[in-house]
Amino acid sequence: MKKELSKLMLLLLCTFFSVVASAQLLKVTGTVTDLKNEPVANVTIAVSGTKRLAKTNDRGTFTIEVAKGENIVFSAIGYNTTTLKLGDKTNLSVKLQQDINSLQEITVTGAMDIKRNKRELGYSAQSVDGDEIKESQRENFINGLAGRVAGLTVNPTSGVAGASSSIVLRGFNSLSLSNQPLFVVDGIVMDNQTVDETSDGGRALGLASDRPNRNNDYTNRIADLNPNDIEAVTVLKGPEATALYGSQASSGAIIITTKKAKSNKFALQYDNSFRASEITRFPKLYDKYSNGTNQNSSNVFKYFGPAYSDTTMLWDNINQFFQTGVAQTHNLGMDFGVKNSVFRVSGSIFDQIGVVPANNYKRYNLRISNTTKIGDKIDIIPSISYVKSENDKVLRSAGGYLLSLLIWPNDRLILNQEDPATGNKLPLFNSNANADYDNPLFNVNKNRSRDVNDRYTATMGINIRPTDWLSIQGRFGYDTYKSSGYSLYHPQSYYISAALNGSQDNYYRKYDGYNHTITATAKKKVGNFNFRVMGGTMWQDYKTQMYAVSGNNLTSPTNFDSSNTNPTTRTRLLRNVYGEYNRVILRQIAYFGEVAVNYKACSS
């Protein structure tokens, strides 16, 4: 009886102490952010000396049981480890500082939108933070990459508003094909074409006038992307980096990750920028002599004639022509959500007035993205965006506007470009207006060009994690846009003959592109070895169509519709004659795979 009583008392005593011990554990919640107040996901939270562990979710929040006085250790790849001792507070706000000495641990978005440990990669990949690109305040985000990536060369076509830019990675690979890299946004291949004025006799996608690419410039389409929507850019160089994309990425690939909402808490962001541009460096001139040769006056663009008299008024036509360029950007972003579904809505307005008169570029961006988690196994990431751009362009002067200004007689004020009574071009050396060199201001105001583009893009990302060692990803995207534009030469312009009575080109371009990529990745650790196997498929279907018409004998120099020309002078692309668009269709399917093995610390 005494033995049974002793056992009962011992059992009650053990139960009492276990209840007391468990009562000492407090439920601690909190949020982990970086120094920019952005949530940090996948942070490991461990209680020192115990096996109690937790991890932060995509919103940076966590819950863990901790006894008062115990130490909590916060650790994450790429950040310094932080230790806190629990006091009376049970709701913690923790900030982690990035570890600059652990760059090899940084995760980058590589080919196929798959995040990889940087030191696992067997090829060159360099990342640029989206904030760096945004702060460069370039209208074309490609220009913001200049000087930030080794081996990357950016060549803007000109300094006018809306100019296109080409980008080359580690030199040119082909003399006849494109040397532009492939652009991939959130795992979706995006179009980066521009208009080619050469149509190969009307057979290709070009202008009906089939002229060389020297008089006009067309914005490359990747410039439609809003720099403020970019989270990060990863540049893949060389064939090893882009093997999974095939020959289309033979010149490298630019992998772009866009911003997404990280919390269902409502947040509103607004920023703007204003930039002024001026041309400040001009060649030194000696302009004391008039038109002519051997000190004899003549109507030529050579300045070896008699010296100007002291009473001759000389004009600074260069500064009369160029103006102060002004650019302004307004960005608005909004994050919100409900439970496991978060949204981000962003909009941007960019308005640029160029340093060359009558040159303006405007772009309007709107984007909506969502991230929805279904349990712990499935993520759905849809997005839709709209871009509208308008580019009022100037047709290039022969050799450029500065050269035209340098040869223009400085005793003639360029502001006097036309007869105020008739509106006709004022003569300089010749009574035939078409034989007389164009006043630079007459050129920009009378020889006009304009492009308008409307673009819609819809994407869908799906992540499925059926087990802890297997993940399946799907990226689906549809990209479409319509562009239209014109180029008009005034009936009195030097660049056409009087018999043509003006010339005009109009074009209408349509693009429809669909592509998807589906991958499955298996990871397994066996001892000190880490195995990774990935397989997938890609389908691409792209169609570009173009309708173009060119004609002469203008009805009006201020009407820009294709009906402005004489019907008997009009020419079209070959299929346009039958009421159809010239078109180029590309369809391809690919299957790919990758096997990787690493040892010890090289685990992903």
Quick structural gist:
With 604 residues, the protein is mainly beta. The protein is built from six helices and 29 strands.
Describe the structure.
This protein is mainly β. The chain has a domain at 23-95: Carboxypeptidase-like, regulatory domain (Immunoglobulin-like, Sandwich). Helix content is 9%, strand content 43%. It contains 6 helices and 29 strands. The protein has helices at residues 2-23, 130-135, 238-242, 317-321, 401-407, 440-446, and strands at residues 25-33, 44-47, 53-55, 61-67, 71-75, 82-85, 91-95, 107-109, 115-117, 125-129, 152-156, 165-169, 182-185, 188-190, 230-236, 253-258, 267-277, 292-293, 296-297, 325-338, 341-353, 360-374, 378-394, 448-464, 470-489, 503-526, 529-552, 571-572, 582-599. The strands form 7 sheets. Strands 17, 20, 21, 22, 23, 24, 25, 26, 27, 28 and 29 form an 11-stranded antiparallel sheet that branches. β13 (182-185) and β14 form a beta hairpin. The longest helix has 22 residues, at 2-23. The radius of gyration is 32 Å and the shape is elongated. The two termini are 62 Å apart.
